[in-house]
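Reopening this one. Same input as before:
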Amino acid sequence: MDGIHITSLPDTWWWPFVMILVAGWLATDVWRWLGVLAGGRLREDSEVFVWVRCVATALVAGVISKLILFPQGALAETSLALRLLAASCGFAAFLTFKQRVIVGVLTGEVVLLAGWVLHDVAF
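Same output, byte for byte:
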């Protein structure tokens, strides 16, 4: 019998990438579409909307805290002081420039990368 057998799929090189794409899509896109459908019916000052915004903010704060306090990979090579400085500068830029997230993120990245490069040059 020619063709692809279900038992041979996990042995192919591309199978993990297909699983990541499918699982990633199912895990996120379905909820995004449901959020769009439900969000259009919610008032901005409703308790549900305020709760969702609080949970989303807490999740972002948790991820940022984890990146600063318990970094992995290349970020672990930077000092805690540099990571705190980059986060502080990013937050200050966010507040200074009318709460634009992209300005805060880019400022934090520039400070982090500049500190990393200057540290490597100095040592």
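So the earlier flakiness isn't reproducible anymore. For the record, The helical segments are 15-39, 47-69, 80-96, 101-122.
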